[in-house]
Amino acid sequence: MSPAAPPRARVLAQLAATILLAGALVAGMLLPFVGGTGVAARNSASLLDALPVELTDEAPAGNTRVLAADGSLITMFYRNDRTPVPSDRIAPVMKDALVAIEDSRFGEHNGLDVQGTARALATNLAAGSVQEGGSTLTQQLVKQTLAQTADTAEERLAATEESVGRKLREARLALALEEQYSKDEILTRYLNLVYFGQGSYGVQAAAQRYFSADAAELTLPQAAMLAGLVQSPSVDDPITNPENGQNRRNQVLQRMLDLGMITQAEFAETAALPVQVAPGAGAPNGCIDATMGGFFCAFVADHLTGTLGLTQEEIETGGLTIQTTLRPDLQRSADQAVLRELEMGDSLAGTFTAVEPGTGHVLAMAVNRRFGCDGPECESVNLNVVAGQGAGSTYKVFTAAAALERGFPISHVITAGEPYVSRVYKDGGRPYDVENVGNGYPRTLSMTDALIRSSNTYFLALEDQLGSVEGPVRMAERMGMRFSATPADQIIAENRGSFTFGPEATSPLYLASAYSTLAADGTRCDPTPVTAVLDRSGQPLTRDGRPVVTGDRCTPGAVPPAIATTLNQVLVGDTESPYGTGRNAAIPGHRIAGKTGTSQDNLSVAFIGYTPEYAASVMVYNPKEREQVRGFGGGMPATIFYHAMAPVLAGQPAVPFTEPPPVPRAPAPTAPAAQASGGDAGDQRPGRPAGRPGGGRPGG
Length: 700
Fold this sequence. Notes:
Blueprint: H1 7-30, E1 34-35, E2 38-39, H2 44-49, H3 53-56, E3 64-67, E4 73-77, E5 81-82, H4 92-102, H5 114-127, H6 137-148, H7 153-160, H8 164-180, H9 183-193, E6 200-201, H10 203-211, H11 220-229, H12 242-258, H13 264-271, H14 294-307, H15 312-317, E7 321-324, H16 328-341, E8 349-355, E9 362-367, E10 370-371, E11 378-379, H17 396-405, E12 413-415, E13 420-427, E14 430-434, E15 444-446, H18 447-453, H19 456-466, H20 470-479, H21 488-493, H22 508-519, E16 524-525, E17 530-534, E18 542-543, E19 546-547, E20 554-555, H23 561-571, H24 573-576, E21 593-598, E22 604-610, E23 615-621, H25 636-650
Parallel strand pairs: 3-7, 5-6, 10-11
Antiparallel strand pairs: 1-2, 3-4, 7-17, 8-9, 8-23, 12-15, 13-14, 16-20, 18-19, 21-22, 22-23
């Protein structure tokens, strides 16, 4: 028919088509069930067998909620903003308004209302336009459910196409629903499902969006307004089209008056009111809307899909509850600590990343950036996780641990030259050499003193005595380090003598994780941001009968406990000793073990500090281009650590590190002798570069 056909002619065509459909419904399917004044499904077994699983769920799935460790909301993930509520949390006037305008015989029919359909057709024909719908609320529930839960475009078309076949199936399923569920259950499900405009699905989301209220608090004018939106949410939107919204609201009120749901006085008073809305913000959606920890949220999202194997469909439509490990108090404190040193959007990014020793729970991820937005203050790359710049002398601990495992005592003494020229490692064919920056340190140092003072010459000499970087690299891996920029096998194959000085691109998360292994007396735990994933009913989400979250993934003895506890006692000196390079991180009343680091050319500075309960790394560098960072690891990074951790530790008793077991003295393994000469130490940038394969310039 031509688009220019008169409206009455189009309505006549619709009437004819519907008469044919009604005939098909009655003759082809429903005649055996007609009885009395309504339509009754007498063979309920055959009808119920046809119910899709989507129609047997108790309620539509709501938004997936992401919760912090204390239960507070971080954000939500959803495709449609919906918060299902039970019947007793929906105002009765809302139910009345919807029934009045959408299906006034809802309480009388059994899912299919032939009488109501005929009346609607007559009304529409007389008006020359569609004034009443012919489908019952139950039929609409079937259609909306199948359309909103469709996985493919074909399924969505099958749920909404204007065909006799679809109407027949819809009618049959409506009858089956009426057999299985009460009227109030059907009405509640519909109110939780239907789209009200402004991105709001379900009455609770709509009440929040239009009136900043809960569904239980809706008043008569508000309920009438929402009920009127169901047919044409955009046309009758009271926010963007208040005049249309008012007219439609008054149509609902008139219908409620005609049905005796409200009095003449209530109608007159309410219909005279202008449109009154109090728009509220929609529910947060995704990590860009996170109330805190946007970069932590991004790590959670990657963990859900990459590690736990959830699909984006499950996350956005499953109504899940994601219980995370985020500590809001530590996250807030870390955010403030980073911003004390570096303003939001500074060219230098400062990251603070904390994990819990013994569990691997990620506690906080702070950075002077906003996640996912556009602008100079924004960043979509998770700087807390990716490997950016090197972490400098924080890697000396890996060499020390490897040496202890080889049998070197923590008291092992080396007198190293200045500069120290390696007898093992090469720099472009020449012997690799390093030097310290600064004066006043003894030439001869023990491993303890060399760690506290962060001596470059000592640790290259110690690498010489180990004979290869394989031990330090494998120890780093066992502690939890991951090498993504340059694989560990390549570092070993090239025998990069610079490894102990940390030039390799380092992830702040895995640096914190590696040191947390020491804090846990040698137990390595994979970093995890999630402790539980619950389905829409509050039960653990399963795969093949097993929960997708099965607990912490820890490996006791990844580092021998004697080595871990020994290093813990030594690294306390980094913050407590007058020669320590991390004194800015010291927190009165608590023993803080730590290590500073400064990479080649001061392109990054780092500090890793820990107690038996917390391990946190701080890195500062420019993630976009080469930029020297002022100071060293004991400056900004150690200061950020202090300001982040001091408020958290202030209210907690000090927890001591485990004392190392007594170790009998044993002679050090036979190794090449270190070069004897004067040496200075410090968490400093050394004086001259060294290339590959020996590695880049070491740093303190």
